[in-house]
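RECORD CONTENTS
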Amino acid sequence: MSAEPVRPKGASLEDEFQIKALTSGRIMVNQLAILVKVAQMHDLRNEAVVNAAQALSNTVSSFFEDKKSVSLNLIGEYLFIEDVRIKYNVEDFANFDFLAGEFRKRKLGSLVFNPLADADQLILFVSIFLTAQTDTDDAHRDLALRIGASGISGISTEELKPPRAEDEPEETIDAAGAATRAYVRVVLRVKELFGGIASGEPADIRKLKRAVQSLIDSAYKNEDVLLRLSAIRRKEDLFPRHFANVCVLSLLMGKRIGLSKYHMARLGMAALLHDIGRGGRPCEPGEESNETLIGHPRAGVQTILKLKGLNEVAVSAMIVSYEHHRNVDGTGYPKAVETKELSVYSRIVRIADNYDAVTSSGIYGSEAVPPERALRLMSGRAGSYYDKEFLEKFILAMGNYPVGSFVMLSDGRPAVVVSPGKGKNRPSRPFVAALGGEGGAEFLDLSGDGGNISIAGTLDPQTYGINIYGYLFLN
C-alpha cells in the first residue's frame, strides 16, 4: 500500500540504513512471524520451515553490507530495527501483532543477529524459541540459557525492559499509526469472535470492547485515515472488514450528531455486532432473499444473548441487530407487528451498513456499486429507507465523491479520491491523487491549491487496469 522509499541523492550511510530498515525491516518481521508459525505446525525438516528460514536468512544478511550486527527490538507497542521504528501496512498487522505478542510472552526485548545467523541457525533458534518458558518472570533467562547451551553463535537476545517515557520516540504517538492499529485490531478481534462461535466455545468479547474504544479515540483524532481504511476492499477478509467498516462509519456519524463518548461506545459495539446473525460469511450470488439472510436479524439477537462481557451494551446491540434492515417508513425486515420508530443507533447503523455493503462485492451477494453512485441511490431514499437528517450528515462526512472514488479531473487526468475536502466546498472538492506516469501521483486539494481544477466525472478503474487502493496511503 505504501510507496517504496527511494534513496535521495547524496544520502549519508545513516540515511541509507534508515531506508533499508524501513523496507527490509518490514519484510524481516513478516518472515520471522511466518517462520515461527510454520514451525508450530510442521516438523523442523519440513520444506515449508526450511524455505521460511532461508528467506529470513537472506533478508537478515542484507543488513551486514553496512553493519556487523543488527537488532530487532520491541519497545512499547512497536518493533524497531536498531532505533528505526518499522512501519507496517494493514496487511502486515497480523504478523506484527503476533510477533510482538510472542516477544512479550518470553520477556524478549531484542534479537541480535550477526553474519553467522544462517538458515540452519534460524531453524535451531525457532525450535528453542517455541519450547522455552512463557509468561513467567524467568522466561527470558530460560530462553537465553537454552540458546547458549545449543551452540547458536549467530543470534543473541536481550531482556524486555519497561519503556521509559523519555525513551519513547515521537513516532510511537503518531495518530495515523494509532488509527491504523485500532482498525486492523478490530478486524482481527472480529475474526476471533467468529472463530469462537464456530467452535461452539462461549465468546468473551471484552477484547472487542477495548478495540472499539481505540477506534473511538481515532475517530476524534484522525478520521481521514479511518475513511481510507474503510474504503479498501479485499476478498480475503471481506466480511470481518465489513463489521469494522460499519463500526467506523457509524462512529463518524455519531461524532457529527454530537453523541457523548458513553453513547459512542454503545453505538460502536452495536454497529460492530449488527450482522453477527449472519454466521461470519458473506452472501453468494443469488442468496439475497434466502431464509438465512432474511432471518439473520433474529439470529443475531439469539447469538448476542450467549456472549460474555456485554453488560450494559447488550440491549443496544440486540436492538440494532434486530432493526438494522428495517426502514424508517416501517418497511424492511423482519416485518413488525406494529410500526414503531427505530432507535437512534439503528438509524445510524442502517445507513453505514447499507453503504458499505452495496460498495462491496459479496456482502449482499451482488456486484459492488461505485461509492459516489451508492450515495446518489441512497439520497433518493432519504425519508423512506433512511433517516433524512442522519443521511445528510453521512454525505457531509463522506463527500459527494467518497474516499476510493475514481474520477476524471477537468484537466483530463484520472484521479483517486484520497480524503474529503475541507471547508464549505468539502462535499464536491476533495483531496485527490492525480495519476501520472509510471505509477506516480500528484496530490491536490481541490478546495485549496487545486481550486482551479474540478471533478468532471467518474471513471471505471477496471478500464484503466489500476489498483486504486494502492494510492490511498502514498502521501
Notes: The beta strands are 70-75, 78-81, 84-85, 108-113, 155-159, 406-409, 414-419, 431-435, 441-445, 455-458. The CA atoms of residues 267 and 344 lie 9 Å apart. DSSP finds 16 helices and ten strands in the chain. The longest strand covers residues 70-75.
